[in-house]
């Protein structure tokens, strides 16, 4: 009898990938999702007979073994093996069409397929199959019912990350590029590097936690090195990235951390990795996010007697914005009721279980105050719920004394934002993280959280403050509402003219009093430039006034900063800076004190993109980027960065200096290689301006 041999295996790539929503991956091998059937066509040396034995063997890892579950031996029509099964679809002469269904909780990763017939083993050329999580499969823990949501959170390879400040939120377009060349391989490399066991690879909670650790370079030479120093000469400034593709490709090629990232870059890359592996994921921006190192739900801000914020005194900080990710999954490791979105964060802020990793933390646990649930719920809870306490530092008999000049209980964790499903707009998801301020549910959630957190009493705490006796009582009760002042004192900070670099910064502090009577108010105000992490870079100016108000009334006090006071700093720092205005008001007659701060961003002229609205596959079209410098200053060392996934590779135009009034036009020839809605992203960087960005869509038919 001639022994049965396999002469070829066809992975039927185009039909399988269409059905598995994996046809976007730019890779030779077959990519499929778990828990869903795919077909392979096996060609044999002769017709299959009843007595013949045909086995498909799927192996994962270096040395696959049956008893470890890393080698699956599947015979058609036999009982399933670890939840996998194979069935014969049809037999035509020497051809067999087989259908393979993997288990909906199979370990994700790279499998090798060998076909065994009797004692012969056939190893197909390129016999690697990539198996991913499957949000389309009801039995997979990442199952997502809504199609539009899957389209956004799994398949959309472009998006928007919201940055700026609560006063002026703006969008930064970002190319996730999870389907680009080498990105899936980079993710598989990270999975191998994570040393997760096979059992852990089944569970998106373990996988997302491991990825949150590996996207930062701390303690495991992961993808990105964080740097907030302002000095990026030995790498790429965090402001210069416009997507994850170059970062992950470079990391995969060199296997060394890429320099440098800040929070939105970490979040952009982690979003790419999770979507690439098949876990629905979104970038989430929180404005005025607390970094509370001591988990006492309090962040102290120290001001000097001019009302200027001091950097050196506190280890805690409030970031103007912080970006992390939400990944979607059913949690099988904790009690019911906490499935759905889980916060994960790859920005290295605090160690968790000895590594820089954060999450997955159920968003519902943050809302309900169940901060004991894994992982890192206390840290995430504090990021969106801490109180901000202001202290004025004054010298009394040569010693620093601390005077409390304000407590804000509703200032942290504002405008929590993500990109809308299927639309280019911001959607506010604060209510998923928090109950409405002042509601009964919020009070109960807060008391629940406090019972696990035991915050310390109200005492200034910093390197210096620990040696100083604090002023006032040391154990304030739990403050649930903003302190109401006797006079109804209220302070607002606004800009009265657009904040264009090169122009004077014109702002105003409005003091309001609602109680009738004559009141004297001492006001100090300061203007500083700060990084988004809250780190002050320059003091620009202060005002000190005493005003009298006949209540109820208000008065506007102007605060104006000349261009010379800030342009030098603006040109010399590598990061984008925000304008921080702080005001401390005190009513003399009643001792009412109130501190208010607002961060604002500079406003820039736009980049416009000129190109057709539609184009056809493989037919070139032209795209022009036009920028007019409408500012009163020359923009030095301008660079235009452009990228269009499926249209053209990342390109940089060196534009030199752009004088006021000058118009620049850069053109690129585009060759679309993929169908559907594609986006082009452009970003202009100069010494004075760290990021004017825009995006434009084109439909490829």
Sequence-ordered SSE layout with sheet pairings:
Blueprint: E1 6-10, H1 13-19, E2 30-33, E3 37-44, E4 54-60, E5 71-74, E6 85-92, E7 95-101, E8 109-117, E9 120-122, E10 128-132, H2 147-155, E11 158-164, E12 169-175, H3 183-193, H4 204-214, E13 224-226, H5 245-254, E14 258-261, H6 263-277, E15 281-291, E16 298-303, E17 317-329, E18 340-344, E19 361-362, H7 363-368, H8 377-385, E20 387-396, E21 399-408, E22 414-419, E23 426-428, H9 430-433, H10 440-453, E24 490-495, E25 505-530, E26 536-561, H11 567-572, E27 578-587, E28 593-601, E29 607-610, E30 614-615, E31 621-628, E32 635-644, E33 648-658, E34 663-670, E35 676-685, E36 692-700
Parallel strand pairs: 2-10, 13-14, 16-20, 30-36
Antiparallel strand pairs: 1-3, 3-7, 4-5, 4-8, 6-7, 8-9, 8-10, 11-12, 15-17, 15-22, 17-18, 18-19, 20-21, 22-23, 24-25, 25-26, 25-27, 27-28, 29-31, 31-34, 32-33, 32-35, 35-36
Summarize the structure.
With 701 residues, the protein is mainly β.
Any idea what the CATH architecture of the largest domain is?
Alpha-Beta Complex
Query: Which radius of gyration do the C-alpha atoms yield?
Result: 29 Å
Secondary structure class reads mainly beta
CATH C-level label of the largest domain: Alpha Beta
CATH topology of the largest domain: Coagulation Factor XIII, Chain A, domain 2
Q: CATH superfamily membership of the largest domain, which one?
A: Transglutaminase-like
Number of domains: 4
**Quantity of strands, as a count:** 36
The proportion of residues forming helix, as a percent range, comes to 10-25%
Specify the biggest β-sheet: 6 strands, mixed
Q: Note the total helix count.
A: 11
Span of the ends, CA to CA = 55 Å
Low-confidence parts lasting 5 or more residues at pLDDT below 50?
457-482
How much β-strand is present in the residues?
35-45%
Q: What integer is the average pLDDT?
A: 92
Indicate the overall shape.
Answer: elongated
